[in-house]
């Protein structure tokens, strides 16, 4: 790896929907350019990159793996094959971070699917240069029996759809950039105006050479420029002119020998576009000649003679026409040449790519460069410039990024080093009796030179070089044991790796959990964190069958947590070991790895622990009435502390749905804002995630999103005649947004605590715990300096000591609110989208003197600490208020995309109906008998869904599930028939069966060990025994 020049390196990944042909394509590239790793005869059927038994058994890729290819003995191409299944989207993130370009595959028959959107978003987020590969072109001929013109229309539509997705990403960035410029100072606008350019050009254009048309299974493929070169002499036009004309509405006029538009061909002629006439029709003729019994076999000989193809006579005389066809086409239009030449021409080398991607990898930090940290900042900026320039000189600071750790059995490690010396593989941390697995880091060198035996600093994502107290916590020093070049499953030892290369590093197993930045200096900012498309939602509790194996299980869970970039291992409040995975397939693989590799013990796995949330009934149209009731003193729950000194009144209302979603999605950003991290040294991960300009103020952006959400819900739910009403509602919401005291649960949740209205008075409880608009100040709704203020009403009863006591109780009120929102009244699940106003008033102790010290311990004996009483009373009052406002259960929903043949639509709908699914739309795929159905399926009903669907449709239907949103169940869990019609329909209250919401609540309560109201004896009858005694 030392003798490869950086401009000749390409780092690429293959991204696509599941079963669109990524691993098959990789097979052909490896067979052609990887020094004989795969025989050409086996290419496409071996699936070399799927070396795990589970991958071969299921025929899907489950992890990203790398292989090094050589093209024309000049170019060094690092190819990463990634999974297409949604459960393994974390592997796509790790592959995208280490790559500079992406081959995006789309099935020419199935077209763009949901995961295609996801991988294009990932490529856009990571700033990769994408190329489009339209795979399975042969299915248009042999399966769908399309004519060349119909096939062209389908291909044009797919390219247009993919360009539309990329255009949406560009528009999103364009609009955010315009908003930023309009929000800035006037002088700044003029300077930065050139940053925003209206880029209307399509991303993927076949005439540009970044679109390939291939059949990966048969090993052939082409780009337009290859056919342009074929026809240069025949048509008498330049290759450049033909390349532009071979896609789009361009026609060849046989009489004038000119390339013309549609009008130039005349109205009545049956003209075909040049792509159909000169590219697709010859392909169709070759297929018909080979596959049809009465086909013109001389056509194959004509192709062989015209292009001087070297096809063995043995293959031409084969009885299977598919073998004959493959022999001719794979030599006429070699797949590897088309793809690798496109990679070399259309994708950037590491030097160009890193200068473009630097703002994503190492975003600039806004810090003041004065004081003792100026030297640290100067060196950190030098490191950033080295990464931007991809400086591969030995003097440059060495920086690498580890995107994941993967486990390799020790017996699979190379036994000899790069110089042929025998290696001692037993000295690694993974082999010291703990496990037979060794952990290897999957990394890319971004600057400098990495070599075996080098000592580097391992920086976690939270590391800050400016804070001395974080030095020990988020930085470690480690020695690199060995470096390897990855060749699929195999590892090839190398002595060193220069900037721009992808390597496997051994020796970091004890220092890195998931991902980290490696640096030769401590004065370096860590790379930005990886962005995952979904979060692990499927949770199960795990325990060993034999309790004595608990130690082995815990050790195995630690190893699994390190080996899988997406799995989450935790211990629940009840002491269970909980494993969180992305979906059923991911969970099954994790359990199998635990049993067979990491823990090697028999396991008991609980039913899935489905997350729920709790809310109250409420409509957007009732917002104004709710706000008015919240402003008044009516409709509240009142509770007093056991000692009677504090009276707590709680009111609750439902937040607008859009505001709830904004708060939920911005949890990380809110944590940074409320914690005061922003504006100092760290940029928010949310800003980077959204793909916007890094200079944008995240607090401004979040405040604007909150305002837009409130305004959108208010205006969207009102008619034209209700504009005045909507304006009043908006004005009231603006007032309330200036009174945000806290968010919950965990200080960042989608529930809001407002400060109480101090206008009311109470003679019995004269002092109000006012709180402060702390969160509103941080979000910029009010000036922080004007917050709070504990000025009490002048009264003979109110003393300064009582005011100080009220001020000290603020944290108790917030803690009670946090406890209540973390565990709701229905089944102790977190609350969702609720706003609380908590008015806590305290009274002085009877006979209290000005010296509070002598009375401060009086309540301890009987009722406990006063602050604890207030906290508990606030929690109980909040939960009671929710119960009185028609509580509802909120469940997570999957977006489900199904593909089904027409004859199996009935069984598919039956399966969906049993799973409480809601069908959104169905449409027939043009040119095929497949229907695409979109539906929402509750997460709680999704377990075993794919298996049941395959069973009922004889394997003809496929489904993909993606976590979509949270949705409240409309059913009242405490429904009791009251009206005559309800009693007639459901019977009296004693015989009404529990509805779905109540069943789900009872199941969660049973699982948590909470009391459940149920009949112990369902059908009471006299006991009968076998024996009859007279």
TrEMBL record:
GO terms for molecular function: GTP binding; GTPase activity; ribosome binding. NCBIfam families: small_GTP. Residues 7-240 form the Tr-type G domain. GO terms for biological process: cytosolic ribosome assembly. Keywords: GTP-binding, Hydrolase, Nucleotide-binding, Ribosome biogenesis. This is Elongation factor-like 1. One of its GO terms (cellular component) is cytosol. The keyword Glycoprotein does not apply. Coiled coil: none annotated. Pfam families: EF-G_D2, EFG_C, EFL1, GTP_EFTU.
